[in-house]
Amino acid sequence: MSDQFEKKPPVTTTDAGIPATSDEHSLSVGPNGPLLLQDHYVIQKMAQFNRERVPERVVHAKGSGAFGYFEVTADVTKYTSAAFLNTVGKRTPVLLRFSTVAGEQGSADTVRDPRGFAIKFYTEEGNYDLVGNNTPIFFVRDPSKFSDFIHSQKRMPGDDMRSSNAQWDFWSLSPETIHQVTFLMTDRGTPRTYRHMDGFGSHTFMWINAQSEKFWVKYHFKTEQGIENFTDAEAKAMTAEDPDFHRRDLREAIDKGDFPAWRLDMQIMPFADAANYRFNPFDLTKVWPHSDYPAITVGRLVLDRNPENFFAEIEQASFEPSNMVPGIGPSPDKMLLGRLFSYPDAHRYRIGTNYLQVPVNQPKSEVHSYNKDGSMRYRHNGNQPVYAPNSYSGPQANPNIIEPGWETDGALVRSAYTLHAEDDDFGQAGTLYRHVLSPEDRDHLVNNIVNHMSQGVEKFIQERAIKLWYQVDPDLGTRIAQGLGLAISLQVEEVK
Ligand code: NDP
Ligand code: HEM
């Protein structure tokens, strides 16, 4: 910054590069006279100003990001043919955007919420986007419920305020949410910084190797900074003190050369295991227990460069789970399949048809598609044919790339997944409560839930939620009921 002050400043110009004659005065008839329409410079300033905002993201509006690289640290070619993963030591440039989910662009960083953990790998085979969260699971397992869930988290139509009542109404009517709500209500729901939390691909994905063998995989980015969380009270205090605390922390750490890093661990399931695994391995409300599929370390992600211009490089960044490179594909997770449609559609609306031509979204590999024209297009392949087939050396698809598919058949239905032996909504949340959380974590969990459920939640909704907490764990249900002053102590049998 100081260098900039020492340099001779350039001449102000219009956006068309024409030198401007004043940074202070509009063109007027005499010093006090009326202003003139021919002052195209000031008119451009005002008109551009009116158009500075694009719609904010409908979810994950408040976020921050940085650039860096991903480095392969183990040979994974027996699992995937993805070129960016094919050599130990290979580095691929990345952009990582962190975010909260429910708040608007100006909202505080430190509120209780899942955190987005969206990575764009600029690979030699095109962009690979892994658009995950800091939780390995999610609230719902069917995309048809996503907008209803989000509506319950955001502002209500009447008073335009958020409503704990609506949140617990939705959650208590949707038992599948309880595992993620448990996670969210622990202190991991209020991470100390973006640097001190893990990231997850969350969904199950497919990897395919050069011999066409397929595997089911899960991505775990483990923070090298260590997990650190705020307590509920600390998070609330920081919300008041510095709403941009996470943004500032990330920027300052990178500016001073303290580059945050994550270790990439993968869980890998042989393709054939999925059918009879004890849980539905594609259900986004469940993890794969590590005892069943231990994680192997395959890489390291480092952030070492801040954006120069936040709007251009972070606000306009467009992540899409549908961006998957050869060797990587989706799984039958219905949420993931729904997301494949949703994001490019969101970007066409939020940024515009040619959002992939904005520099931050441009692949670093060549683009040879048959798409053309549209608002603000400037990258093109000259007079390349715009239809296929053609006789003029237009691009040709590569049929040798293995489609990441699986066998499927059946009647068209609207139905829940078929159940696996140990599928239920409460077991893994109970394991988290009983076997993973420390006694102190459990105390905080109870307090966090009681605080949250005390904020204007109607009694019948509290009681319905308590029945779910009993099914997670009778001790947890009892403690929350006591904390809320509810005179119910339902046994698990009574509430099923
Ligand atoms: P493990 O004991 O092998 O793993 C426990 C996992 O829980 C670790 O990944 C650990 O992550 C994470 N963890 C530790 N403390 C907390 C906390 N306070 N809040 C949330 N997560 C925490 O057991 P399992 O693999 O059998 O999983 C048991 C339960 O742990 C699951 O039911 C799930 O609720 C939770 N969990 C499981 C994960 C998985 O992928 N299997 C991932 C995250 C949570 P860390 O190393 O960062 O401490
Ligand atoms: C952002 C839709 C589930 C993580 C978004 C956006 C939409 C959306 C429309 C805004 C995109 C933009 O304007 O740039 C959906 C739908 C889902 C779903 C329809 C379910 C069917 C999930 C899940 C995760 C997730 C399960 C994590 C595992 C994110 C993240 C962002 C985001 C991290 C912000 C990306 C960024 O930083 O730009 N989602 N989402 N979403 N979503 Fe989802």
UniProtKB/TrEMBL annotation:
Catalytic activities: 2 H2O2 = O2 + 2 H2O
Key word Oxidoreductase present: yes
Any one GO CC term of the record: cytoplasm
GO biological process, one term: response to hydrogen peroxide
Uppermost EC category: oxidoreductase
Tagged with keyword Heme: yes
TM ranges: none
Pfam families: Catalase (PF00199), Catalase-rel (PF06628)
CDD domains linked: catalase_clade_3
Segments forming domain Catalase core: 13-396
Swiss-Prot/TrEMBL keywords: Heme, Hydrogen peroxide, Iron, Metal-binding, Oxidoreductase, Peroxidase
Domain of life, per lineage: Bacteria
Record region (Disordered): 1-30
EC code: 1.11.1.6
Cofactor(s) listed: heme
One GO MF term attached to the UniProt entry: catalase activity
InterPro entries linked: Catalase, Catalase_3, Catalase_AS, Catalase_clade1/3, Catalase_core, Catalase_haem_BS, Catalase_immune_responsive, Catalase_sf
SMART domains xrefs: Catalase (SM01060)
Active-site residues, as the UniProt record annotates them: H60, N133
Residues at which heme binds: Y343
Family: Belongs to the catalase family.
UniProt protein name: Catalase
